Amino acid sequence: MAAETGTPTTLTLKSNDDELFSVAESAAILSVTIRNMVEDGCAGGVIPLDNVDGKTLASVITYMNGISAIPADEEKKKSYRDKFLSDKDFETLADMVLAANYLNMSCLMDAVSAKIAQVMEKKSVGWVRRKFGIENDYTPEEEAAVKEEHKWTFEGVETDDDN
Amino acid sequence: MEKRQKLIAPAERHHIPHEILENILCRLPAKSLLRFKAVSKSWKSIICDDPGFSDVHLRQSKISASSSNKNLMFWIETYPNGNKTNLITLQDFESMKSRKRKQIEFPMEQGLHLEVLCHCDGLALRRTRKAKDKTYVLCNPSSRTWVQFRCPYRIYHRPRCG
């Protein structure tokens, strides 16, 4: 667990599709889940992360390295997060929010949630159903009534051609 | 067995648990939330029937307003225009000079000539300008909803902000 000398400790993380990643312990412990394993002495070998795939884990590790390299300056951290998430599509963001939740990384969780909200803001009801995999359980009459209640909220909605 | 991840349809893979969904939805503006009531019955119940969610949404709105320096102050004007609509103007207090405004049409009974008495958490309490009239209107410009009520006794008060 503890490094005896000044050399940084490296952890090996394993995704659920068996990809292995090396990451500095100081960056990895941004995840409370991983920090607890390290503190309990369970991080000696490979740390299996059963709920995260390799593509998402690679992205999370990029974030861990990037954010931990920034000194305690909340403004700079915020602008790093904004830049990091700026080019991510909905699918990637959805994978990341689930990974951030599983890894217990509240700063990433909040940033990704805010980004998803920003992406959704002007989207149609149909877009949301498709992207979140939600079945419409209203009858056509019920749906029309709910929409009628707040007609003005359907003004200025982006046209529904997916991406 | 190892390939299980690839066989799952994207929509299913992105099934977002309830608590994470709430954490996303509480960051949306009122307009989007009211529209997304039509997504499904369970979304409607999170948005409308869960008082805990309303609290989180209010708290989150205040956090994001303060972090982006948007101290939204009410600056309400009404223009009875012969229709059943009044025009309300919300003015960002910080950008008074830039005249950045948000105007919304607000359905309201005609002829009330309301003034704002006070406001708190995005709600405004308004009263008719006629001193004898005891009609009050509590309105929420974000959701464009309002309730009208009468106070049975007379109150003397000065406008104030909350």
What do these coordinates show?
The complex is a heterodimer of chains A (163) and B (162). Chain A is mainly alpha-helical and 163 residues long. Chain A folds into two domains: 10-120, 2-Layer Sandwich (Potassium Channel Kv1.1, Chain A), CATH 3.30.710.10; 125-154, no CATH class. Chain A has helices at 25-28, 32-39, 54-68, 74-86, 90-102, 106-120, 125-132, 140-149, and strands at 10-14, 20-24, 46-48. Chain A has a three-stranded mixed β-sheet. In chain A, strand 1 and strand 2 (20-24) form a beta hairpin. Chain A starts with 9 loop residues before the first strand and ends in a 14-residue tail after the last helix. The model of chain A has no long low-confidence stretch (mean pLDDT 90). Chain B is α+β, with helices and mostly antiparallel strands and 162 residues long. Chain B has two domains: 4-67, no CATH class; 72-161, no CATH class. Chain B contains six helices and eight strands, in the order ααααααββββββββ. Chain B has helices at residues 4-7, 10-13, 18-25, 30-36, 41-49, 51-67; strands spanning 72-74, 85-92, 101-107, 114-120, 123-128, 135-140, 145-150, 160-161. A five-stranded mixed β-sheet of chain B has the order 7-6-5-4-8, with no helix packed on it. Mean pLDDT of chain B is 70; it is low at 1-11. The A-B interface holds A 16-18, 53, 91, 94-95, 97-98, 101, 109-110, 113-114, 116-118, 120-122, 125, 128-138, 143, 146-147, 149-150, 152-154, 157 and B 2, 5, 9-17, 20-21, 23-25, 27-29, 31-32, 34-44, 64, 105, 143-144.
